[in-house]
Amino acid sequence: MDKKILKSKFIGALVGTGVGDAVGAGFEGWRTAEPEMIQAAASSREVLMYTDDTHMMIGMAESLVAREGFDGEHMALTFMRNYEREPWRGYGPGPPRIFRMIRAGEAWDKAAEKIYPGGSFGNGSAMRIIPIGVFYHDDLAMLKDVAYKSSQITHSHELGKEGAALQACAVALAVSLEPAATFDPQEFLTKLGRFVQHEVYKQKLEKIGKLLSKTDRARVVAELGNGIEAFNSVPTAIYSFLSHPDSFEEAILFAVSLGGDTDTIAAMTGAISGAYLGVESIPDKWRNKLENRLYIEELAKKLYEGSGFKSNK
Ligand code: F2R
Ligand code: MG
Ligand code: MG
User: Fold this and answer.
1) What is the structure's pLDDT at 145?
2) Distance from residue 22's CA to the centre of ligand 3 (Å)
């Protein structure tokens, strides 16, 4: 693939996360939201502020860049440092408890096992996984291993880890697609189906395939979910992208219109769409207003430059 296109895809994935998160943030917990209302809310804001989703995604990118690949302890400390600087970003209940445990001396890969039965299956480790999706896009076995290990920092439940790996794989496949080639949503789903192991996700991917010929929002929410759990949000983001593969804006508006965990579902949708269509596909009216956009772009460029020299500690 042309290097300029690949770089644009890396930037599109990270900026797409931030834009989706920020556009969706005002609607978290709503039952549904009409596209006109979503557009008006974004237009009315001078700065599109992101939430914990992008804040943790930035931490992941910072750690991958600093360590030239995955280093679990360094990543955990980076998440913790960023949280302590800006705890008001709307974090889920689990991660702050885990950061306090690590601060008190608990091992970075053990603390998450102490909250919730079997660990967390919230979508917190999937919403931030995008840098791993782009950095390891050319090695899906390594990507899965690193996605699982990064999830272990805060989300040690099998369904939390698998959700993070699935989102990373969707981003990786989108990065790898030649923009000039014909896009086949069913082929994309088949590749994801071969990648996932857990039956819960396999069944959701099958449902996506059947729902693609319809555009009934209520049915999408009923069958795929719009909740805070990884299995009720990662498949919904994949659907939002696959049902609008040619338009970043349409994909985001659809994701937010579903209601529920709107910032997170739109962040994950924006990551996949931006990874496929490149940063130029993100409307200027949103991209130019994204908080810390230049820093996020800088991190994406560094990930792109470092992706040939990765390690996995
Ligand atoms: N926190 C929020 N939204 C709340 C409102 C924020 C407000 N607008 C504000 O600005 O302050 N959003 C963010 O949290 C989600 C990610 O959460 P994460 O990191 O996964 O958290 P956690 O605590 O690990 O899991 C979330 C919930 O899932 C349920 N759960 C998880 N594992 C479970 C298990 N094994 N058994 C039963 N339930 C389990 C719990 O209810 C957890 O609290 C994103 O939406 C992000 O935007
Ligand atoms: Mg959030
Ligand atoms: Mg959310």
Assistant:
1) 98
2) 10
